[in-house]
């Protein structure tokens, strides 16, 4: 059983996320707090496996500040940010500080659940849009410099679709996640195969794994 603590300064977000997660057989929501200081205090008395936190908090402490303090005092706790913030510098700072997961709030609670399950197995989980930021953060360099021209020619949306295909997400679910039609996803898939000169989803996934756009161990 995985113990979850939720930190967000919006009570409706905390309540909704907790309601969803506590219905999962392998999770227990042991705490719901609205300030970083309450989270730090809670962790002094209760065992927690994963902290799910917003990045922007109405406090003198940012999400990254909380992450650093928690990692210093409780290094075994995994941290997943569930936030609207997707600026390069903020995301990179969070990952370099030790965040195992980063999910954008445009995705629903099921994406948070997937992130929790992934980080509990000592893997990283992040929204598709953030792949390139995270690759650069983990390598300390701009990973695009080592990419072939075929990858550099892809649009941001095509890269998102490629990552989801590599995760073996069905076309219908990809369409739902990206708020487009399934026919649009099929068009992106066709464009990917043409630009990458491959003939199947396996070929698309191969590029994603080979050039570090996704960890081959992610489920």
From TrEMBL:
The modification 4-aspartylphosphate is found at residue 54. Residues 147-212 form the HTH luxR-type domain. One of its GO terms (molecular function) is DNA binding. InterPro entries: CheY-like_superfamily, NreC/VraR/RcsB-like_REC, Sig_transdc_resp-reg_C-effctor, Sig_transdc_resp-reg_receiver, Tscrpt_reg_LuxR_C, WalR-like. One of its GO terms (biological process) is phosphorelay signal transduction system. It comes from the Bacteria. SUPFAM superfamilies: C-terminal effector domain of the bipartite response regulators (SSF46894), CheY-like (SSF52172). The keyword DNA-binding applies. Keywords: DNA-binding, Phosphoprotein. This is LuxR family transcriptional regulator. Residues 3-120 form the Response regulatory domain.
């Amino acid at each position: 059983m995985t113990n979850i603590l939720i930190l967000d300064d919006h009570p409706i977000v905390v309540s909704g996320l907790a309601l969803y997660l506590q219905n999962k057989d392998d999770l227990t929501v042991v705490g719901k707090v609205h300030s970083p200081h309450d989270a730090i205090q809670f962790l002094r008395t209760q065992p927690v496996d994963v902290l799910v936190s917003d990045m922007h908090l109405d406090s003198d402490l940012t999400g990254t500040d909380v992450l650093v303090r928690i990692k210093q005092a409780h290094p075994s706790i995994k941290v997943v940010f569930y936030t609207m913030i997707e600026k390069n510098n903020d995301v990179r700072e969070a990952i370099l500080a030790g965040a195992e997961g980063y999910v954008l709030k445009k995705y629903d609670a099921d994406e948070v659940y997937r992130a929790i399950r992934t980080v509990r197995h000592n893997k990283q989980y992040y929204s598709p849009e953030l792949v390139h930021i995270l690759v650069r953060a983990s390598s300390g360099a701009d990973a695009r410099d080592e990419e072939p021209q075929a990858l550099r020619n892809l649009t941001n949306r095509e890269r998102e679709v490629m990552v989801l295909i590599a995760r073996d997400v069905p076309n219908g679910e990809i369409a739902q996640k990206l708020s487009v039609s399934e026919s649009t996803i099929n068009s992106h898939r066709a464009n990917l195969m043409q630009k990458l000169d491959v003939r199947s989803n396996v070929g698309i996934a191969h590029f994603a794994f080979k050039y570090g756009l996704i960890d081959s161990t992610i489920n």
